[in-house]
Amino acid sequence: MDTATAPRRVEHQQTDKGYVPVYTTAIVEQPWDSYTADDHATWSTLYQRQRELLEGRASREFLQAQDEMGMSAHMIPRFDQLNEVLGAATGWTLVGVEGLLPELDFFDHLANRRFPVTWWIRRPDQIDYIAEPDMFHDLFGHVPLLMNPVFADYMAAYGRGGVKAHAIGPEALQHLTRLYWYTVEFGLINTPEGLRIYGAGIVSSKGESLYSLESDAPNRIGFDLERIMRTRYRIDTFQKTYFVIDSFEQLMQATAPDFTPIYAALEAQPHLPAGDVQDGDTVFHAGTGEGWADGGDV
Ligand code: HBI
Ligand code: FE
Prior knowledge:
Helices cover 42% and strands 15% of the residues. The chain is α/β, with parallel strands linked by helices and 298 residues long. The chain has a single domain, classed as Phenylalanine Hydroxylase (Orthogonal Bundle). Strands 6-5-8-7 form a four-stranded mixed sheet. Strands 1-2 form a two-stranded antiparallel ribbon. The chain has a two-stranded parallel ribbon with strand order 3-4. Helix 6 (149-168) packs parallel to helix 11. The structure holds 7,8-dihydrobiopterin (HBI) and fe (iii) ion. Residues 97, 100-101, 103, 106, 116, 133, 177, 180 line the site of 7,8-dihydrobiopterin (HBI).
């Protein structure tokens, strides 16, 4: 990557996620011709590795959408080509950005069915881990499900909810951010074939793709909006808890109501640790689709 196209990091900002880089909020044209052979090789390596791993682990909708969009290991996709397919399917548009955006800018994009995609890809020495979103995470992880009409509507509704929560205050925003984290980033879905991954943070990580489904260590708990909004999360390790939806329709329906009274009610409730199981949680076990209410006399 030459200096003319290096990401322009403008400032650092203290947030609930620690001290994070914030980039310019401008939309940038994808500098496709300036990707190096190394950049394409990084995409290929990651794409091939994750696709192989995700057969039978990621949701069918996710894998099918990647194929429909014409994503492949061959080379870094062109945003404008993906946009033709995506626009026709659900009216979403990918826009190039430098990286993580301030929350309100991010919400505004989503509310208007624009998904910001980081234009640069990680360096070869960052293949297994990068602390911030790069093109592989954004494009491979987030974009495919925008092809699904229900999920596409959920993302836009989330953006509108974000603009509202931002106006209400930091507590509301913290509660809403947890919903994004435990669904869009780290969500699991229960299917007739068993648990599958749909969260972008999981599908773009080799280690967490295996851990989230197959390790006995984390909790897998049935989706519950208020439970999620109360639950802290970790950004520096694999998750201690994953929440399991039954369908994208469930996600859409559960998040359709106005959250304002929910935020108000949650102010009186303690936040929950990332790794606890509470009475009333539906617990799923590793690798299976079987769930049952925990805390009863089973
Ligand atoms: N900006 N580009 C980008 N991508 C994200 O996923 C993103 C962001 N800014 C804020 C943000 N995510 C989170 O704070 C979510 O809570 C929305
Ligand atoms: Fe993400």
